[in-house]
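Retro notes - structure team

What went well: the batch runner handled both jobs without manual restarts.
What didn't: labels got mixed up in the shared folder, which is why I'm recording both outputs here explicitly, each with its sequence directly above its tokens.

Job 1
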Amino acid sequence: MKKILLVNTNIEKGPYPVPPLGLCLLASVLEDKFNVKLYDGVFDEGKSLVGLVEDFMPDFIGFSIRNIDDVVAGRPVFYVDRIISDFIEPVRKITSVPLIMGGSGFSMFPSELMKMTGADYGIIGEGETIFPELLQRLIKEEEITGLSNVISKKNIPSESTAYTDFLSISSKSFSDIDRHIDFTPYIQKGVYSIQTKRGCSHGCVYCTYPVIEGKKFRRRTPENIVDEIEQANRRLGSVTFEFVDSTFNDPKGHAEAICREIIKRKLKVRIRTMGINPRNTSEELFELMTGAGFVQIDATPDSASPAVLKKLDKGFTMEEVEKMAILIKKFDLPTMWFFLFSGPGETRETFRETIDFIDNYVSLDDLVYMNAGLRIYPNTPLYSVAIKEGLVMPDQSILQPSVFYFSEKCGKEEINQLIKEAAKTRPNCLPSNETTPSPDMIKEAHALRNEKGLTEPMFRTLLRIRRKRLLDC
């Protein structure tokens, strides 16, 4: 039986470490026909990888690149250099077996990353079907020409290409996939990530979800999803579950059905979720989420200006954003709000509209994340806008995180100054380049939580401390 080593190259641990459950799912798919090992680099950061390769002696090695950079214009962190120096180059020095690249980050820049890494093959998009087929052809020494979404170092496209084939995941088993890694360090510091669907039917100008996962929702059944939650909760005990879909409550009715299934089984779990779409919020949804065990949500309207929402192609109105904010306060759901400033159409006036919304609708106990500039990625509508406005040349590489969109009417320096001024008098508003708490603040937060027995989300405890420090000044 041929040996396959899968390598998670992600080492980012902020704001919390994310377990490579997507790679675990791929390992589960492969293990019927191959001897599979998974190396998780989040905490080890490549240190024991060479030793593992020497001991295991794999026939193929797959490297997953999750993120290219941290999408923060003020202090961009470029992950690719360390991925190459700490993971790929040390492995290449000790083995000549085929290296195969994949992952969401790779899928955005496949051509450039193939050249930078010197990999033999690359898979753009989902790997559950394509990766086993690629391996079988390589083992049989068959041609891979025509194998969809696969590229090789002998045939690297001149331009970044979008993924085209998407799987049905309605009945795919996600059972017990975390057995491929040591989940212990994630129980206290991280989350168990749950994907209820893939794809996104929205057209937000900057977003890569439709590029990587397709423009249609591909849903898992509520029963399938809650089976995974129930089984993981039984195995792992005290772990927080996070729904990591592009938007949790899309399409309408899907989130409600998941919550009903959790409630029906009387599961006692802690849940949080990424983006909530204002268009599909309702009292029923928030009642069900509260009953199911949600302890935190992310609200991602990006702007509170009608003109900017239209330019960003968000697909909802300010009335719907306000309705969502009212419901969040009514149900007292701890919330992290995310706003992107200086996108298409941003002006000083539209910035003020968003700040007025924050003042009038957002609780002081909830965090407001203020990001300046929009990262430009290939094959997104924003990329086309940037080319049309002359900010990016058609043949220009945008792999390095120096390519951000800033409105011509409210540019980089001006928007950063506006954000800085707004945050001075609003303790819950944090500019994106100030969101990493200092070690002494983290220590103080843990002490406060232990002293008072706080079970609130950590961001609320940190805001307590930040508010006190600003008042003391």
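Job 2
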Amino acid sequence: MSFLSSLFFGFLFTYLTFSNSLATGVSTWLEPQLEPDVASEKSDQDSFFTLLPSRLSAIPDILLQSAAYQQAAVGGAVGLTGPTATDPIDSLVNIFCTFRTPQSVRTTTGTGFFIDPDGVIMTNAHVAQFLLLAAAEPAGEANCAVRTGNPATPAYTASLLYIPPAWVQDNAAVMNDEVPMGTGERDYALLLVTRTLNGEPLPAMFPALSHSSALLSTRMRNNAVVAAGYPAGALLRNGSNTDLIPQKADTSVSELYTFGSNRADVFAIRGSVVGAEGASGGPVLNEEGDVIGMIVTRGDDAVDGAGSLRAITLSHVDRTILEETGFTLEEHLDGDLTLRSQVFAETLTPFLLAILQSSQ
């Protein structure tokens, strides 16, 4: 198992290094797809989504078949709901992970944001997988801290509440690729804050942003949006002692993409100061202040300017989490979150080990 885990972590750090270069790595687009709700109204090229390739051949039903997970998902009292913050900066977190082996110390950094006032954080799967692998007999020691503020300072620990099994399965299959490339498909996760690092009680509520899982229309092209995150260019250049400063920027949507769902699964936003490594996992808000997407990869700077990004839509998250679990995104934010996190870990750790072994 030590060899398999070491190999997976090798893939992980390569993925984190290269996943933000998606746009230049995917250059051949297939036939565009019509959006159902506006296709009858438009006949020009602007009525299409651009098709991104999907690597998924099958969707695991492990959580649909797990009686313990299904019961945990509907049990327990409902906690707080609704937005408790309006400024995305207030809701941002930096997820800083360290992986130590006898030979080396490696670090990675990503962004997340509070999506629920009970302490639920949304971030990328390629960041959150550290929390899963830490419980899967890694060939080293993995530690992650949730950091907040300006500059970011350690504040909380968190447990894994959800990561798509399909994403885990898909990325385990390509761990031997020399340069694995992420598309952003199902690259999301939910974390649950478990305790403070200073020993004080957890806050009564966390600064959560409002969010919308509504389908995005092709009319979103050129609409104004706000992007936020913890870009980490200076930290990656100068070392882990460098202050990490949150950023937000006004930008706009340039293009929308689909993984074949005939819906907007990904959208591109034009360049800004947020567009750098480390901003993955940050929110993208519409003009009404609702989170409509999460930063997942770098964009095409030649088309959209320096610091361009791509984000997966909240409708993609909602649709795919329902497909894999039987519950919507909103339903995942209710109930006994601590119990659900425990059951999820017990269910997914054996699944991870099984696909590691089957991929060899």
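One thing worth noting from job 2: The chain is about 25% helix and 25% strand.
We'll revisit the folder naming next retro.
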